[in-house]
Give the backbone structure.
Amino acid sequence: MGLFSRDIKSMDDLFVHTLRDIYYAENQIVKALPKMIDKASDPELKNGFDKHLKESEGHVRNLEEVFQLMKTEPRGVDCPAIDGIIEEAEEVAGEVDDKKMLDAALIAAAQAVEHYEITRYGTLITWAKELGRNDCGEIMKRNLADEKATDEKLTQMAESRINLAAEEARP
Ligand SMILES: [Fe+2]
Ligand SMILES: [Fe+2]
C-alpha cells in the first residue's frame, strides 16, 4: 500500500493499515531482541530482554487475533520507523567499546522501541473504541500494558544502576 496510492478510504482502512504497521514492527522486534540479549552484560537487563522477547511473541499472537476479529489476513506493511530505530540501535551498539556503557546504550535503544509501540497502541486503542471495536481494543490494551511496564522497568534499571556503572567506565 503506497503512500500515494490512496488505498485508505475509511477509518476502518486506516485502522487496518496501522494494525499492519505494528504487526510488522512487533515481528521485527522479535527478530532484534535475541541480538540485544546477546549484547547485554547486566544479568537483570539480559533477563528483562528475554522476558520481553516472550511477551513480544505473545503480542504478535494477540495482533493475529485482532486481524481475525477484523476478518482480515494478518500481514505486515513496511514500517520504516521501526526499521530506523532498530538500525540505529545496531549502529550505536557496534560503536560502543565498554560493556557497561553498551548496557546503557541498549536501554536507550530499547526505550525508543517501547515508545514507538506505546504510540501505535495508544492510537489503535482509541480508534478501536471510536469504531465500536472495543473487542480489538481490549486485546491491544494487554500489549500496551506490557510495553509500559517494560519501559518503566528499563528506566528503573538505568537510573538505579546501569547509567552509574556506565559513568564509571568513562576514561
Ligand atoms: Fe510489543
Ligand atoms: Fe515492546
The mean pLDDT is 94. The chain is about 80% helix and 0% strand. The pocket of fe (ii) ion (ligand 2) is lined by residues 29, 52, 56, 113-114, 117, 147, 150 (CB under 6 Å).
